[in-house]
Design goal:
heterodimer; A: mainly alpha; two-stranded antiparallel ribbon; 73% helix; B: 573 residues; mainly alpha; 2 domains; 24 helices; 4 strands; 4% strand
Chain lengths: 480, 573
């Protein structure tokens, strides 16, 4: 048996992120600096590898388990960058916090390169496991959030594993590239069941219906920096996992398209209706995030039809691009929100008495944001821009481009789904506009001014992709 | 010259930012007016050195047709290019947009200066007792009457979200007086009339943003850019209505406007992208030249686009946002809504929907025509009973736009020209009516027809102008409104058969328009002078200057329609 060489250059971002995690665990007081520097280095390495030729390693025949192409490295850079943002927003924390955050980001980077079901599922677990600890703030609410997240996550992991097992049974391989040919002669019922279980389980990470219910509760009660991570990097993980599985593995399986269509329509309906009645900021963003998961999944549903299956490449690219724009906007919104809410103290140590006494999380009510424009112009501007972008309206063009990307694919293959997306976006306006209005109007209360650099950088990133969307669209263009 | 295309859209946008940045300076309004004026000049220069209008094939690419065009790559993956182009049809509409933008900015600037002068006067009377008896400050402050007189406008201006009260900065308002009334609930000062805060420079900035986005819509040669510009109009217009509208109705009206518009524009976007997918290009001119999309999707594309544009136009029964938005919006907001935003809908319907899917348009023409004719008659009947002047003018727009859509649906050459002409005429006459109604409401503090009367005696020049605008609106021969409506009826009748009934309905609608506009004139201008109209001032020189271009344009289009019709005939459709 020949020992194959490992392409270490392809693995470089993952090595750097893992090293940062280990370093953070033992660096003591320098843990934050070590984590941020290591993650930043991983992001730079990912960009550098991505700009070079496509790389792949861990081959079985022609199928590779780990690929470092443009899409993978773009996603990896984004995972690392978002983790750096969250780290910058976290203030003082104990050493374990930095280890857990960095480990989760390393899971994301591994996920970006994963091209077989085992690597993919392990990477998703690596991304999720540290969050069990991070979401649980001290006190009853925090424990409840942590438990909810744990149970929902374990259930969905089991579901996804079951689906993966069924697909393995049907096709005889776990490599995504092998699923297509392998499923050709398989029992359609087995394939459909496997696809349904796998995709529903992975959609949990994206907080798509029907496994969405954890998101509003957990995001509301988690510390705000962790909520930022959950809403951005963790969701990107879900989008990447679903997109990779559908595009690289199941793009010839019509039933997978049907599953995605159901998930998408359900998410759009449930998320928008849920968001309509929210009076608190974080649950509003969380519920609307469910709707956005539906928009991101929608283009993948075109593989239902034969005509759509020829469009699988553009469709998956649109889904991925939507997810990237969306998580950038979410990161901007949550970063700004984190900056203007009172500090919650250390995440892993004792919370403040106010945290434990109240039945609600640190995000606060929408009304509490009134007049933020006057009190804290920079975070207010970033939050406003992000919210307008989430509504999909110019001048926050990042959101408009995301919507255009999705609608362009749907218009050519599934007009009815385009109409569903449009209807969802109209409902979305009904809750985003009052949120935007609250920021501008009203008497300003005192607002802390923290993390100005982090918020400014998040705002700059969103503004940059608004002006030059091709930067995102280039690396989100998927090819086998 | 192609660079003028960029200036046309970029100058108002830059002006909006500049005005917003300088919102605390007294000259901010004039900066805005200057930016709008420069944009107007840039657009006015566009016919210089224009192309012949003929299409040429060079290097496998079609050029020409447009007077000027310009294209910059932006996001090729989304078929998005920053490509602008202009021809006779878009030029006239862009010019109208820029003209109305300039007029609205000047209207705001003049209003702000008057306000500053008024406040200065009130300030002097209010501070008199303070200086005479300093002891009262410690105990009871200034007399309640003086505090109320000064404080009411200042209080509501101080609650301005984006800017700082313009008046108070300009006049050096004593801050204790402003602080004293800070608790006055917003809108308390605005009962029944326009709230004074409409003179804030932020409003001018928002107007310029609407102008920039609308100009971009008219000049866009790329469908994705067209969609983005179409969407960009929404937020500033929403803010204008929501923030500066009539306090009683603005929230609901703004929300309704936003939801209707977004629903329409997303359906339109779907239609546009179906067309892009079918033809493989997003170049508007190229798709029109190639005869539009394939037969199998033509009706789908047209239906999606037509629903989207029909919301904006608006076409009955999708019009219900319009009366609310117009009634609630401040004067300049109504002017831009009528003069520019409705034109986005009709322009889109005629050029984009008609151009991308000519077959679908032909198939759907009867449906469109029936809806348009129904709209004309319904609007006429509703207007006969409306008790409020702004709402009446707003509803009359539904009728006028019905004529435009009916003429377009007729599909003949005369019909399309009548549609384009009527579109422009409405863009001159209805804004004039809104300016006049705004001036009337500002003077009398009421818009109710029942509470008005005798304007002829109280303010003869204003009554005269109102009569002129009403006659132009009802389509008196010799004024701008006539040609569009007359040729609409002619074009519909020309089709024969069932179209004759629609032509008759349209003619009946024109008759109803005469009835309700004359009713309005009778209530407002004639009769004994109503209490509300006693002692009101007549047209000021500044107002006359703002309205003069609209009056002149109405007369010009009415008396010499030929050159405009020639210009429209050159357009790419």
């Amino acid at each position: 048996m020949r020992v194959q060489a490992i392409d270490h250059a392809a693995m470089l971002p993952l090595y750097l992120a893992s090293a940062a995690a280990v370093l953070a665990l033992f660096a003591g007081r320098l843990a934050k600096a070590a984590a941020m520097a290591g993650l930043a280095a991983a992001a730079v390495a990912a960009v550098a590898v991505g700009l070079g030729p496509d790389r792949a390693t861990f081959a079985v025949g022609d199928w590779h388990s780990y690929v470092a192409d443009d899409a993978a490295m773009g996603a990896a850079a984004l995972f690392a960058g978002l983790a750096v943002l969250v780290a910058a927003l976290s203030g003082r924390q104990t050493g374990e916090y930095w280890f857990l955050l960095t480990a989760s980001a390393a899971g994301g980077i591994a996920l970006a390169g994963a091209r077989d079901l085992i690597t993919l599922l392990v990477a998703v677990e690596t991304l999720t496991l540290p969050l069990y600890v991070l979401v649980a703030r001290p006190g009853r609410d925090g424990a409840e959030a942590g438990t909810t997240f744990l149970i929902a996550s374990v259930t969905s992991s089991a579901t996804a594993l079951m689906g993966a097992a069924l697909l393995y049974a049907a096709s005889g391989t776990v490599h995504l590239a092998g699923l297509g040919p392998g499923l050709g002669g398989a029992h359609p019922g087995l394939t459909a069941a496997g696809a349904a279980l796998l995709l529903s389980g992975l959609a949990f990470k994206l907080a798509a219906a029907p496994l969405h219910a954890w998101a509003p509760l957990v995001l509301e009660r988690a510390p705000l920096p962790v909520a930022t991570y959950l809403a951005s990097a963790s969701k990107l993980g879900g989008a990447v996992a679903v997109t990779w599985v559908v595009f690289f593995g199941l793009s010839d399986v019509a039933s997978a398209g049907l599953v995605i269509a159901v998930l998408s329509v359900a998410s759009i309906a449930v998320g928008n209706l849920g968001a309509l009645v929210q009076r608190r900021t974080v649950p509003l963003l969380a519920w609307s995030g469910v709707a956005h998961a539906g928009y991101a999944l929608a283009p993948l549903a075109v593989i239902m039809t034969a005509a759509g299956r020829e469009q699988a490449g553009p469709a998956a690219s649109a889904a991925f691009a939507y997810a990237v724009f969306f998580v950038l906007l979410e990161a901007g919104a949550f970063a700004a929100l984190t900056a203007v809410r009172p500090a919650a103290g250390s995440v892993l140590a004792e919370g403040t008495p106010a945290d434990r006494a109240g039945g609600h999380g640190p995000g606060g009510r929408i009304a509490e944001l009134a007049g933020l424009w006057k009190a804290a112009p920079l975070p207010a501007a970033v939050l406003l821009f992000s919210v307008v972008g989430l509504a999909g309206l110019p001048p926050a063009l990042a959101g408009t481009f995301a919507k255009v990307a999705v609608l362009e694919v749907l218009a050519s293959s599934a007009v009815w789904l385009a109409v569903v997306v449009a209807a969802g976006a109209v409902v979305g306006l009904a809750y985003y506009l009052p949120l935007a209005r609250a920021l501008l109007i009203g008497r300003a209360g005192p607002a802390p001014r923290r993390y100005a650099v982090a918020v400014a950088l998040a705002g700059l990133a969103v503004a940059a992709v608004s002006l030059a969307p091709q930067v995102v669209l280039d690396f989100t263009e998927l090819s086998r | 010259m192609a660079l003028m295309l960029v200036f046309a859209a970029a100058l108002p946008a830059a002006g909006a930012l500049a005005v917003w940045g300088l919102r605390r300076r007294p000259y901010a309004h004039w900066v805005g007016a200057g930016a709008a004026g420069l944009a107007f000049a840039a657009i006015a220069l566009l016919p210089v050195g224009r192309g012949s209008g003929a299409w040429l094939a060079a290097d496998g690419k079609l050029t020409g047709g447009w007077w000027h065009q310009l294209s910059i790559a932006w996001a090729p993956s989304l078929h998005l290019e920053f490509s602008l182009a202009v021809d006779g049809i878009s030029w006239t509409l862009a010019l109208l947009t820029a003209l109305l933008g300039v007029l609205c900015c000047i209207h705001n600037a003049v209003g702000a200066e008057q306000r500053a002068a008024d406040l200065l006067g009130a300030d002097r009377t209010a501070s008199g007792p303070l200086q005479g008896a300093p002891g009262t400050v410690a105990t009871g402050g200034p007399s309640p009457a003086a505090g109320g007189a000064v404080g009411a406008p200042a209080g509501s201006a101080a609650s301005d979200p984006l800017g700082v009260p313009a008046g108070s900065v300009e006049t050096g308002f004593p801050s204790p007086a402003a602080a004293q009334v800070h608790g006055v609930p917003a809108g308390a000062a605005g009962d029944g009339r326009e709230s004074p805060e409409w003179r804030s420079p932020v409003l001018t900035a928002l107007l310029l943003a609407v102008q920039a986005a609308s100009t971009l819509v008219f000049l866009a040669d790329n469908l994705v850019l067209f969609f983005i510009a179409f969407e960009a109009v929404l937020l500033p217009m929403w803010a204008i209505i929501h923030r500066y509208g009539d306090p009683a109705a603005r929230r609901r009206a703004a929300a309704k406007f936003a939801l209707f518009t977004v629903a329409g524009s997303l359906l339109m976007a779907t239609g546009l992208f179906v067309a892009v997918a079918d033809t493989g290009t997003a170049d508007l001119g190229a798709i029109i030249l190639l005869g539009g999309v394939g037969n199998d999707v033509s009706l789908l594309v047209f239906a999606l686009l037509a629903i989207g544009f029909a919301v904006k136009a608006p076409l009955w029964p999708l019009h219900s946002w319009l009366p609310d938005a117009h009634t609630a919006a401040p004067t300049v907001g109504s002017v831009l809504l009528a003069g520019v935003l409705l034109k986005l809908g009709t322009y889109g319907l005629i050029r984009v929907a008609g151009g991308l899917a000519p077959d679908g348009a032909a198939d759907a023409a009867p449906v469109l025509a029936v809806l348009a004719a129904t709209g004309i008659v319904v609007a006429g009947l509703v207007c006969l009973r409306l008790p409020e002047i702004k709402r009446l003018i707003a509803y009359s727009s539904v009728g006028h736009m019905g004529f435009v859509v009916l003429a377009f649906a007729a599909g003949t050459e005369a019909g399309v020209r009548a549609a384009l002409f009527g579109n422009l005429a409405h863009g001159l006459v209805t804004p004039l009516l809104f300016f006049l109604a705004g001036a009337l409401k500002a003077r009398t503090h009421t818009g109710s027809l029942g509470a008005l009367g005798g304007l002829r005696l109280a303010a003869p020049a204003l009554a005269g102008l109102l009569g002129f605008a009403a006659l132009a609106s009802l389509g008196l021969p010799g004024l701008a409104g006539f040609w569009g409506e007359a040729f609409t009826v002619y074009a519909a009748a020309e089709r024969g058969g069932a179209w004759l009934a629609l032509a008759a309905a349209a003619a009946f609608g024109a008759f109803l328009a005469a009835a309700y506009l004359l009713r309005m004139l009778r209530r407002v201008s004639h009769g004994p002078v109503a209490p509300a109209a006693i002692g009101i001032g007549d047209v000021s020189a500044a107002e006359a200057a703002v309205w003069a271009p609209l009056v002149a344009g109405t007369l010009l289009l009415g008396l010499v329609p030929g050159p405009l019709l020639t210009l429209l005939a050159e357009g790419i459709l």
